[in-house]
Design goal:
By secondary structure, the chain is α/β, with parallel strands linked by helices. Helix content is 41%, strand content 22%. The longest helix has 22 residues. The chain is elongated and about 75 Å long. The two termini are 45 Å apart. The relative contact order is 0.10.
Length: 311
Amino acid sequence: MKTTKIHLKKIYSFWDKKAPFSHWKKALSESFKIREFYLLEKFLDALLFNPPDLVIYYYHKSPEGLEIFIRDIKLQFNLVRLPLLLVINHDSLRELENYLKAIDDFFFLNSSANEVLLRVELSLRRIDRISDNNPLTGLPGNVSIERNLYKVLESERPYAIGYLDLDNFKAYNDLYGFSRGDELIKNVARILVTTISSHTRDGFVGHIGGDDFVFIVPLESVEKVAEEVIKKFETLIPKLVSRKDLERGYFISKDRQGKTCTFPLPSISIAIVPVQKGKFTHIGEIAERAGQIKKLIKAQPGSVYFVDRRA
């Protein structure tokens, strides 16, 4: 069985120098950097001064060492997210209950090399997702965004990259509070996801952070997507502002200098950059082009989108 390689990930294993560990090491070495430890002291020193991306620990080699590892290193030195996989005997399942808060997975001594390889890869991918996804919206973050942008650069199919952000969001957040501001952000995320998924199976939505989002769709559908996103957003706004502000068409809050001002109701600006193979060589060029467009469209009232049609 072949799994997708995750290059350069570093794994520390604390186990014995015999089968099945030797077989597992051979299989894992095809995809990861494996460093084996047979002495507890050296293992703990390495964890402390040069932590890996994942640890495989043979529980029966030193149960006391596991206690030290978890109590004195994993929980004390900001290594809580370091994936820990235990190797145990079948009759030791109940002992796992003592470590449920610290371990990520386990497998038995008679596990095949393929199973070990798969569990390692799943654990690494799980921690990547947790680290990358935005905690508010659950959308993929900057690592996934960058990866998808590079895919677009290499694709034969033309795509469009949409950079969406909210207008007057800070003033809205200051007036209506963080809870209402978070609801606004989450609703924009839902609008993007539902709209794009209804138009294409070949789309992507990422959350850069704050009130900034990125979406990717096939070029031929981008304008319909942008129009629909704006239409849904305009339907949403009356539910997230007071009747008084809705009727007068603005709200009163403070600007970045602390001065009381009137602000138009929240709106969205979408800068769209078409991408065809060979047009850009780096994703920074796309972001730069989007930044130029955003300066123009954010000066316009209401929700707008603009497609960059320059060569």
